[in-house]
Structure to design on (226 residues):
């Protein structure tokens, strides 16, 4: 501010916002991220503007998740405050998405699609969540980003469960399992086995359910995860 560096001030405000978000000070975080947004728009800095929109989306997303942690309901059954917070997150992600499309930034589009899928899932809009996660999946494949691809499969599996499409969920969870083995991520592999066990229980294929739950058990024991 002293040397009149507006872009520097914008970036510093954005960094403050992200730090406050991690500290759980969501309202203060929004103020700082909004300042990042305002200065970026004033300076015609499209990249900064896109980043600020994404960051504000992240703050509302984190706040929504934080508010809903104390509740055990399924996605979609949310108190008004949580719903409004997640809808705000979604709006900022949408604005970010249209701007990064304009900028031709595919990696940023992937991140926006993933987060839109997650917020729509929490809001109980499962069909919309699926559409966004499919877009995320396509971009992850485009970049050869195996970790993002794995997350997309997992999220697609979760959303199909709530639409009662258990057979489709099982296929997505199998792809999650396959990739978690490729990535040598045992915790995620265990999680995929657990999801498959539950899905086969829903499909009333109990033999297979047992098989996957046993695999989950073995990895949990290997990892010493009580």
């Amino acid at each position: 501010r002293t040397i009149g560096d507006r872009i520097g001030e914008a970036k510093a405000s954005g960094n403050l916002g992200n730090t406050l978000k991690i500290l759980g000070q969501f309202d203060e975080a929004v103020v700082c991220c909004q300042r990042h947004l305002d200065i970026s728009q004033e300076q015609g800095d499209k990249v900064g503007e896109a980043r600020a929109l994404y960051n504000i989306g992240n703050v509302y997303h984190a706040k929504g998740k934080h508010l809903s942690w104390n509740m055990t309901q399924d996605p979609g059954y949310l108190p008004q405050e949580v719903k409004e917070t997640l809808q705000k997150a979604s709006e900022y992600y949408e604005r970010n998405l249209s701007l990064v499309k304009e900028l031709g930034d595919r990696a940023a589009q992937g991140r926006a699609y993933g987060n839109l899928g997650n917020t729509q899932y929490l809001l109980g809009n499962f069909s919309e969540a699926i559409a966004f996660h499919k877009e995320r999946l396509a971009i992850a494949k485009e970049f050869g980003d195996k970790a993002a691809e794995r997350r997309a499969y997992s999220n697609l599996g979760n959303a199909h469960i709530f639409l009662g499409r258990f057979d489709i969920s099982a296929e997505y969870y199998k792809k999650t399992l396959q990739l978690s083995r490729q990535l040598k991520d045992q915790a995620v592999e265990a999680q995929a086995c657990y999801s498959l066990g539950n899905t086969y229980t829903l499909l009333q294929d109990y033999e297979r359910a047992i098989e996957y739950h046993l695999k989950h058990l073995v990895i949990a024991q290997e990892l010493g995860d009580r």
Notes: The mean pLDDT is 96.
